[in-house]
Amino acid sequence: MTMADHKTNKDQRYDRQLRLWGDHGQEALENAHVCLVNAAASGTEILKNLVLPGIGAFTIVDGHRVSGEDVGNNFFLSSDSVGKNRAQATTELLQELNTDVSGNFVEENPDRLLDNDPEFFHRFSLVIAVQLEESTCLRLGSVLWNAAVPFLVCRTYGLVGYMRLVVREHTVVESHPDNALEDLRLDQPFPELTNHITSYDLDNMEKKHDFQLPRNYKEKEAFRQLLREGIRKNENGTPEEEENFDEAIKNVNTALNPSKIPTAVEDLFNAEQCENITSQSPAFWVMVRAVRDFVQAEGRGSLPVRGTIPDMIADSDKFISLQNVYRERALQDAAAVSRHVESHLQAVGKVCKNAAFLRVVHCRALVEEYGVDTVHKDEITSCMDNPDSEMVLYLMLRSVDCFYQQHSRYPGVYNYQVEDDIVRLKLCVHSLLQEYGLTVNVKDDYVHEFCRYGAAEPHTVAAFMGGAAAQEAIKLITHQFVPFNNTFIYNAMAQTSATFQL
Amino acid sequence: MLRAGCRMALDVGSSGDWDGRWRHVQKFLERSGPFTHPDFEPSEETLQFLLETCKILVIGAGGLGCELLKNLALSGFRHIHVVDMDTIDVSNLNRQFLFRSKDVGHPKAEVAADFINSRVPGCHVVPHFKKIQEFDESFYRQFHIIVCGLDSIIARRWMNGMLLSLLVYDDGVLDPSSIIPLIDGGTEGFKGNARVILPGMTACIDCTLELYPPQINFPMCTIASMPRLPEHCIEYARILQWPKEKPFGDGVALDGDNPEHIHWVFQKSLERAAEFNIIGVTYRLTQGVVKRIIPAVASTNAVIAAACATEVFKIATSAYVPLNNYLVFNDVDGLYTYTFEAERKENCSACSQVPQKLQFPPSAKLQEVLEYLTENASLQMKSPAITATLEGKNKTLYLQTVASIEEKTRPNLCKTLKELGLADGQELAVADVTTPQTVLFKLNFTS
């Protein structure tokens, strides 16, 4: 197959996802190298959902040997994998999914790697750890935080799924919001727009309301009435059917929204990283600063014009020429922003078009979540006002980790252990709550349930988390769409979920 | 019996099982717990039921179907049938992981079944390379639970109607043993939903028809004389130019999967766009518009199929109370789920026993009745065929799906209900692709 053939084949294969994140998103994906620690079912399900869309490369770190139990819930192990190294066995079957992807494995316990070669982890775009004991997880988290490598923790524990994102700063240029308002600038028309509009007969508005747009319901009703009066009438005085006027009247509420700078973007402008631009500044912050400079100068308080307008009922010519007025202004604004930028940046156009949707995500380090002085007590306590909130599942996961620390095993793995472990686990819950000074009530039912789980990893829950985590990984790699911040809990019993900032 | 941590070479018993194989599942079947279903009793027999007796039907072997088969197989289900009328396409490979490049062109159901059967020893997936409509009640009745991963609302409604037709009522009381639970999943880009339907008891597909987003169809006048968007140019080529110019011969329909056809539409769209100074017509956009392509990724399908499979497990084992009854998922911005109980519609045309009414003046034309059946939000029929009993005989008033009958009955559309000989209180039987059973309507004349 020639290079060209290969490219067309890839375009066809990835067509359905290219329509979501574009060729540039796909490129970012193909240049990424992801590390998975532990090839348990949750982990291989995540990787499956990264290999299929064409991640550049993956490396599995796992020192375990495959058990009969592993083969039972893991699609990427077969009956003759038992006894083999789990990293190797799963790599083979994952690799087979997509020959464009490069699969690697390291037969090693992550603790050993952290002892002997912590810098091993610096090379990855993202590290994902599943079913990892708390102590190793915290160690790994620390190494990755210092190296500014994004870290995604994921686990399946019985019918509960858990994900934690640990990234210092993640910037998003294309957040692709679902229901964004349009950028028509009707309240602050730029000169070219005013000139274009005055070629139509619409001078009544300006004269009667001091050049202000309708602000409240009463004024908007009056404005609608004005529009209705504008409809042509026939000889009998009956208004004609004019679709474009109907459309205008219907859109009065949303089209006349004030062109304000969103709070999220104001926060970016006020951020320290925007204020202090150095030669070390990431491109994102340089561009944000350039946009801020534009707002204060050529923009006269407004962001660069987006340049797109919604489809509306009109003649082709009139629509196209109106669209071009906005489009040309957007190009001019982008050029002005460029001039504010010192270093070489290809993405200015995209940043301008998305200026209102720029987002930044900051996640707290694990040490802060776990620290007695820095724990988010209020968040935990207020969620627990409802004792069946998903927060109780988080507290139970922390408690089984305490149990593991004390007993070197998880509670209730074998039938004969269940009854006694309920008592032991309850003690762990109490000591955890006491350590953090949390006056909340954890119902006995949850202690019983978590013993019942016996650290099982049912495939359907692992598969759910596999899909959820993989998409967050793709968001991190492509810098498109907004990742969660920072703890996600899935309750497969009730089919509910929640996101907390811990 | 559970044996502690055996790491010897695999000892595959006669049932194809090895030590520890079902340990992850067993904890939910053999231990009591505080959140189990009221009917649940811990037992070693439940696992045997899953492995040996329980029969599941999976509809669709595509994005959701592949995930469902894997999930069910690894949860202990061994007797699974899968129905899919499609063959494999290259664009499926980014998410339908049971297929490889070499499988392109082969039936999805068959390739999927082979893959699962070889990867998961003991699992016996039976494929059916057929349309769901090719099976009757005797086929569907054999399953304990049916789970759908379909990409068509029409097919969903048909399946829904089929299971409703299996319900047995004794003296007006529903016989619970005639209920076959239907788990339905759907995805679109980063959005998805999963729902549990207990036919005759909970909201059915038709009860919530209004939840489905309407398809985007541009007004004809825009396409014909006032295009503004590149999509308008593409629809012009597809709807107006193709039938007129017949570029590949008489009677050759536009095939979205034929690159030559798409290329033709693409070129014509570019010409149209140039006429109106419209930018943005690309090959990808052309294909998307012609084929009404819905973007898709592996991750969303993984999430929704997993939720569905969890529900199948709960219902088959009574391990937990099932989802009641609708889950919505969206991971565009963080991860969002919403769970609620969809309510039954009192006069649902599919599942309520309420007779459906048609209110029209006797001077109304049959055409108006046809339009009502297709445009009404709660009915949304596609190509209804209307019959009535006149002078003791069954008469077809209008039928679209067979060309010769369509031609013969077309004049009836312009006739009034009175002219057609219909009386007040008369029953009309309507058949449509959206339901396996005819729907009976009572005609009430208004003044």
UniProtKB/TrEMBL annotation, chain A:
Pathway(s): Protein modification; protein neddylation
Keywords: Ubl conjugation pathway
Superkingdom assignment: Eukaryota
UniProt record, GO biological process: protein neddylation
InterPro entries: APP-BP1, ThiF/MoeB/HesA, ThiF_NAD_FAD-bd, Ubiquitin-activating_enz
GO cellular component: cytoplasm
THIF-type NAD/FAD binding fold domain residues: 14-496
UniProt KW Nucleus keyword: no
GO molecular function: NEDD8 activating enzyme activity
Primary role: Regulatory subunit of the dimeric UBA3-NAE1 E1 enzyme. E1 activates NEDD8 by first adenylating its C-terminal glycine residue with ATP, thereafter linking this residue to the side chain of the catalytic cysteine, yielding a NEDD8-UBA3 thioester and free AMP. E1 finally transfers NEDD8 to the catalytic cysteine of UBE2M.
Family: Belongs to the ubiquitin-activating E1 family. ULA1 subfamily.
Protein name (Swiss-Prot/TrEMBL): NEDD8-activating enzyme E1 regulatory subunit
Native organism: Electrophorus electricus (Electric eel)
Gene: NAE1
TrEMBL record, chain B:
Pathway the protein acts in: Protein modification; protein neddylation
UniProt keyword annotations, A-Z: ATP-binding, Ligase, Nucleotide-binding, Ubl conjugation pathway
EC number annotated for this UniProt entry: 6.2.1.64
InterPro entries: E2-binding, ThiF/MoeB/HesA, ThiF_NAD_FAD-bd, Ub_act_enz_dom_a_sf, Uba3_N, Ubiquitin-activating_enz, UBQ-activ_enz_E1_Cys_AS
GO biological process, one term: protein neddylation
Catalysed reaction, written as an equation: ATP + [NEDD8 protein] + [E1 NEDD8-activating enzyme]-L-cysteine = AMP + diphosphate + [E1 NEDD8-activating enzyme]-S-[NEDD8 protein]-yl-L-cysteine
UniProt-annotated catalytic positions: C221 (glycyl thioester intermediate)
PROSITE patterns per record: UBIQUITIN_ACTIVAT_2
Every E2 binding domain range: 358-446
Entry GO terms, CC: cytoplasm; nucleus; protein-containing complex
SMART domains the UniProt entry points to: E2_bind
CDD domains: Uba3_RUB (cd01488)
Pfam families: E2_bind, ThiF
Entry coiled-coil feature ranges: none
GO molecular function: ATP binding; NEDD8 activating enzyme activity
Biological function: Catalytic subunit of the dimeric E1 enzyme, which activates NEDD8.
Protein family (similarity comment): Belongs to the ubiquitin-activating E1 family. UBA3 subfamily.
Protein name according to UniProt: NEDD8-activating enzyme E1 catalytic subunit
